[in-house]
Structures are given as C-alpha cells and as structure tokens.
Design a protein that fits this description.
2 copies of one chain form a homodimer.
Chain A: H1 8-19, H2 23-30, H3 35-42, H4 47-56, H5 59-68, H6 71-78, H7 83-90, H8 96-104, H9 108-116, H10 121-131, H11 138-141, E1 148-150, H12 155-165, E2 174-178, E3 184-189, H13 190-195, H14 202-205, E4 213-214, H15 219-228, E5 233-237, E6 243-248, H16 249-267, H17 280-307, H18 309-314, H19 322-346, H20 354-382, H21 387-417, H22 428-449
Helix pairs in contact in A: 3-5, 7-9, 8-10, 15-16, 17-22, 19-21, 19-22, 20-21, 21-22
C-alpha cells in the first residue's frame, strides 16, 4: 500500500487483532505496508504488542522494520532477545552499515557477545572492520555491500558477479571497477551495463571519471561532494586506494538534515539535539546552558548600568531607549553571523579572506544603520524629544548596528579558522554580547553628548 | 580528474591560455574535469572568457556546464546568443526539468521565442507541459525523461526500450511499469532487471510496491516521502493516475537544503534568500524589514517604560535588571519556537494537539525559570541588594520565562493551523514581542512588590 497514512482506526484495529492473538489477521493487515510504515506504528506500541507483530511477520520484513525503528524502541525490543538470538536472527540479514549502527547502540557487553556469535565469517569481519570508524566519518557511514568487477573481466563475468552479490546488495546503483590489488579504477554505470554488447570487456565500457572519498573523510565532506556531483552513491577507499565500501545518498540525506538541525538549534540556543517529544528534563537540560549564559550577560549588563547610574539620574530619559539600542545590536549581529555561518556551511563564501568581508559588512550595516537612525530621529522629532538625547539615540543606534554587524561577521570566521564550529557564534552568544556592547556604546555616547 | 580542487594557479593558467586564444590548450586543461567544476571556474570569469571556454568545449559538455552555472552568470552568458541559437544548440540536449528551469529565468519575450524555435516536437511538448507547473510542486520538479515498460511486454522488449531511451535518460534508477492507458502499475528494480531470465515477462518480475506523488504534491511532501522511503527517484502521476514524469533525489536534496536555509534565515531575521556574495543593497534589503520591526518594538518598549517612569524614579535600582529580564524572555521564547518549528518541519510532533504541548512547555519553562530565578536571587543576596527588589527580579524572571516559552510554543502551532509558515514566528518576532512582554511584566510586578 504505497503512500500509506497511519489512522487511529487502523491502529485500533491492529491492536484488537493483537489482543486476540490473531496472527493471520495481523499478517494480512500489514501485508502491503512498507517496513518504515510498520516501524512507525510499532514506535507507538507497547513492547509486548511490538514483539507479537515482529514474531508474526517473516524474518526479512522484521529485520527491515528493526532498522527503521526509533532508537529507544529498538533498544527495548532487543532487550527481550539474547545476544545469540540477535546475532543469528537479525544481524546477518542487515546491510553492514545498519548492523553496525544498531550494535553500536547496545551496551559493550552485549556488543561483544553478538560479535562472538556471528557465524558467517564475512558478516563478522565486515562488521568488525566497520566498528573501528568514527560515526561521523566516511568509514562510519559506509556499507561493505557493493558490486565490484575486475578490470580484466568481460561483461558476462560482471553480470555473474552481480548475480552472486545480489542477495546482499539491496540497491544497485553502479558497478565499481578495481584492479588485481582491489584498487578503485573507475565505474560502470547501469546504463552502459544494460546497453553493453555481450562480448565486450569491462575495460571497454568503464569510465575513469569517478568521485570517491577516503575512509577518514568527514561526513560533511561526503555530503557536500555527493550533493555537488549529484551522486546517489559514492565509493570509499582506504589509504592504499583500495575499495572498501560505498555510501548511499539516503544515509547522507540523514547527515544533511542532522547538520541543518544542529545549526538551527545552536542559533536558537539549544545545546543538544532534542525533539518536542523528548522528556521534560531532557528538554530543560538542552535549554539551560544558554539561559545561564543569558543570565550572566544580564548580570554584566546590570553592572554596566551601575557604572553609568550617575548619568541616568541626570538624564533619566536615556532609560526609554535602552531596550531599543540593546535589541537592535542583537538583531543586526545575528543577521550577520547567520549569513557567515551559512556561507561557511555551504562553502559559498568564495574566498575566506576576512578583510573584504568586513568592508562589505560595514557598508551593509552603515546603510541599514543610517536608515534606522534616521527613522528614530524622525520619531523623536515628532514626539518633541530633547535634541541632544535624540542625537545620542540615533548616533548610538548607528554605531551599535555597525559594531554588532562586524562582530557577527568576524567571530564565525575566526572560530572557523581555529576549527571550532562557527554556528556556536550565532544566536544567544551574539545577542548577549551585543546587548552588552549596545548599552556600553549608548552610555558612552550619552556621556559625551549630554554633558 | 575526480575530487578536483580549484587553485589560484590553475585559474591563472587557464586565463593565460584564453588570452592567447589557445583553443587546444584550454581543451586539454579542462579535459578531465567534471562539468560542475568547470562551471565553478566559469562563475568567477569575465563574460568573454566564459564564452571562449564554452565555444572551445564540445556541445554536450557545454550544455552540462550551462546547467550547473550560477543563475546570474548564465543569464549574462545566454544574453550573447539569440533565442534561436539557444533553442537549437542548448535546450534539446538538456533534461526537460533543467531546460524548464533555465527557460523560466529568461524574460518572457525570449522564453516564447525559444519555444517557438524548438524543432523537435517531443522536446517542445515536454517543455511546454512542464512550464505550467508551480516550481514548488512535484510537477515543477519532475523531468519527463524516464524509462517505462508496458506491463504486457517481455523483458527483451523492455531492454530494447531502454536502448532507445538511453540517449535521453542520463541515469537509470528504475523502470516504471504502466498499463495500456499509461497508468502507473509498479516498478522493476535494476537488480531484478539484470537478474531476470531472458524469456521472462514484465508482469512476472515487477513489484506493485511503488511510492508515487501527484503533479500537484508540494515539494516538501516529495522530499519527506523520498527521505522516509529512502528513494533515489520517485514517479509522478497526473489526476488520472497516468505516469507523467519522475523526480530524482539530487533535485530534492536541493529543495531540502533550500528549506533548511529558509528556516535558518527567518530565524536570524533575514527575509530573502541571500548569500554573502550578493550585492550590498540586496543584503541590506533582505535585512532591513526585521530591523524595522525591531525598531518598532524598541519604540513600543520606550512607551512602556514611559508609562512606568514614576516607578523608576522611586526605585531607580529597577533599571539595572531591565536588560536581563527582557533578554531572558527573548531567549526562552526563541528556544520554544525553534523546537516547534523543527517539529513541524520534520513532522515529529506526534499529535498536533496544542494543549498537551503547552502543559509540557510549562513544566520545562517552570524548571528552567525556577533555576534562573534562584541563581539571580543568590546573586542579589550576595551583592546585598534590597530584598523587595531581589524578589521582584526573581519573580519577574520566572514569569517571563514561562510566558515567553508558552508564547513561543503556541504561535508557531497557530500559524501552522492557518497555513502560514511557522518559521515566521521565530527569531526577531518572538524576541521583539518577548522584550515587550518581559518589561511589561517586570514593571507590573515591581509596582505591586515595591509599593
């Protein structure tokens, strides 16, 4: 059933069948569903119900569902099985990258036992070799399952190899061509494979134009290469240039989405990857650090104001525009840093030289700052505000927007230079700094203008 | 040359060859590069140089490069050609979706002339039919080029069809199976096609499990279906269920990245999609609207303070903590709205009922608010602040964090209900509203506590 929509009726119906232990009924109801849809239903079920469903379905489908389940649901589900059962029933049916992801989430003791119980030597060695890699590297993303052909073969040998590998490789995107030492030499596209004449040789039809990554390449590099070259799969080679795995676009799409989510959350001051469905205390914990930094900033602000309270006693009207000056610095700073962070993430900055960026940012900030200063000047003239105060506010606003924008440009670039995630410089950090900067400038200008 | 890195030397070298009109040299230097890498180099060249390079390369490569160029560079480049030249030299070699994207960027007059000059009837009708669709719909994303097989054929007919179509279809991911009325019936995977025995029929090996979209499905729906079901291509059907096109993952990856970028920019208060390389006035224009809203908020704040200036004269110490209370409201509100906006975008909210979300948010906010209030209380005790003011600050802080968090939760959900992009509720909007809310609450509580 393509384009399935989970309805309340459907789930109630399923739960009823499970309650009645109607194995045939459950099987029938779920027969046309994709694994990911069944996983979606199981995610909201009781462990007993989930287990019933999984036992009713054939093992191949059950494994597909297991891969698609939510992490915590899967952990709970696997708890009901011994490591040996997991090693024999589930792991051998999985793609090696999925198997490793799932095994890595289990406690170390269970992990070791599962590996010890893997009967198939190839499966075991694939998994053990993948366990080494950092999960954010190409090695951590790749699967060992792929179709490769020796450069000296002819096409019928190549087709024969596909036939043999077919059991393990779910989707065939490309055939990789290697030499006797297993070094990656090129690719054969599905098109040229299908169109090739029976007698032709691999060396006749393969293309040397192949984009690849190394096992230690970062997940971000993999994702930017695949999106730049519009690839659905990319081969991974080791330090000797030997083909050791391939990464498919679906895994990379997940990486891209996580990256974007991370930047977004950092900008909004959330320090862990959370979802609205997480528990209250996890949500609190993720949000507290930035609130504490904001608190510190607020206390610092209170000291700045304390230093200038003399001026405020003489010119209490200055208070009116404190929030305005502070907030506008924050806004302008966040805008600049966001543009830099995105430019760095998408690699669209062109050069990474800081100076031309600052001068451009200065012009943008001057333009917008001047407009804002003019508007607030007009407002102050209309409400017949004292001229010196009006000038102070407008001048402070212009300076704050310029300073905050330049700070918002420079900080992400500097962080990037020293290899710290520039996204850290967005949101609360820039806002808090610029609140301080804004008030400081405002009072300093006020002291000069209003004496 | 895979994994090509553009170096200054390389570009200087190329420019020198162009200056000397060394056609052979340019051809040789660029021979091993992918189109997207050449496009990247051309993007930073003078129009004359770009034209020289494009004229030197063979037409197929030139078309690929044209598709990959930056929009403005392409527009400038195409200006040098007549509509007839564009229609004969470039358009027929492109995938229909790329052709439509490029034609759509040209002035209407040029667009019509190009279409009038298209000689191949099929190319022309493909392009005309695609021009109808909204660019953010499945129809606007799809290409007409695909491999389809009639359900009554045998496999050799199917292979023959691929052979015929091969010229037009760049990447083969799947063969789509249709009936006599061209209605989508299922798919044949590349694996089963390669593994099928010569005598078998399409109806023997095709799978009915196919996920598809309608021409009017939104780009977001397409991208969430493809990422949910891990697809590299998805078929598009019309209202009668007839197969009319397919969308490939590379185009959808672009959509995903644009979506994420849009949300990010909205949160940072940037109202158009801009890059740091855009012109100063475009960057200014994109940033000004939110600055103006911030300005309005600041003016409103000055009125709020004006209403309470009596209290401030009696309790000038209240001023010290104005920025703190205002900023913390902004921070807490942005955190809540960011979590909602992401939950809505990723469809991970579970239910969309508002009430349980508010009560959960209340608990998170209470927890964090209480902690922050306690910390500021401790600080005020340490600096020997007057007790009533300390209580006012702590109590205001707790209330502001709670109110701002609930507002940050409710507003995106309400916007989503009335079909407005919830991301509009993030960043400057929430910050500005909460600055106001924060100060209002602070003064109200102060008036009550400090009399």
């Amino acid at each position: 059933m393509p384009n399935f929509q989970k309805t309340r009726e459907y789930v109630t119906n399923l739960k009823l069948l499970i309650e009645n232990s109607d194995r045939e009924g459950v099987r029938e109801l779920l027969a046309d569903l994709f694994a990911v849809d069944i996983a979606d239903i199981i995610d909201s079920m009781e462990p007993d119900e989930a287990r019933f469903v999984m036992e009713v379905l054939d093992n191949e489908k059950a494994v597909e569902i297991l891969v698609e389940m939510e992490e915590e649901v899967r952990e709970r589900f696997l708890n009901a099985y011994t490591p040996e059962e997991i090693a024999t029933r589930f792991v051998p049916q999985m793609d090696s990258d999925d198997a490793v992801d799932i095994i890595n989430q289990l406690p170390n003791r269970v992990k070791d036992e599962i590996i010890a119980h893997l009967k198939d030597v190839e499966v075991a060695s694939n998994i053990v070799s993948l366990l080494h890699y950092d999960e954010n590297s190409a090695g951590g993303l790749m699967a060992k399952e792929l179709i490769k052909a020796n450069i000296n073969w002819n096409i019928s040998q190549c087709i024969e190899e596909i036939r043999q590998q077919a059991e393990n490789v779910e989707n065939i995107h490309t055939v990789y061509v290697v030499d006797e030492q297993d070094r990656l030499k090129g690719i054969i596209s599905i098109k040229s494979l299908i169109l090739s004449k029976p007698g032709s040789r691999v060396s006749d039809i393969y293309s040397k134009e192949v984009v690849y990554v190394n096992t230690h390449s970062s997940a971000e590099d993999v994702s930017s290469l695949m999106s730049k070259y519009d690839l659905v799969a990319i081969p991974v080679v080791d330090a000797l240039g030997r083909l050791v795995g391939r990464i498919t676009i679906d895994d990379v799409v997940d990486v891209m989405q996580e990256e974007a989510q991370k930047d977004y959350q950092l900008m909004s001051g959330i320090s862990e990857s959370v979802e609205s469905t997480d528990k209250v205390w996890i949500l609190s914990r993720a949000r507290l650090p930035w609130l504490l930094i904001g608190l510190l900033g607020g206390i610092a602000n209170s000291r700045v104001i304390g230093n200038f309270d003399h001026d405020l006693v003489i010119h209490p009207e200055m208070i009116f525009f404190m929030p305005l000056v502070a907030a506008m610095g924050g806004n302008a700073g966040v805008q600049s840093s966001a543009i830099m962070v995105q430019g760095l993430a998408n690699d669209t900055l062109g050069t990474k030289d800081i100076l031309p960026k600052i001068s451009k940012e200065f012009m943008v900030a001057f333009l917008n700052g001047f407009l804002c200063a003019a508007i607030i000047m007009a407002y102050n003239v209309i409400i017949k505000q004292e001229m010196n105060l009006s000038l102070t506010v407008s001048f402070a606003l212009l300076s704050v927007i310029i300073f905050a924008s330049i700070l918002g440009t420079v900080v992400p670039l500097l962080l990037d230079k020293i290899k710290i995630d520039p996204a850290l410089a967005t949101g609360p950090f820039i806002t808090t700094t610029n609140d301080l900067l804004g008030l400081g400038l405002y009072f300093a200008i006020g002291r000069y203008m209003l004496v």
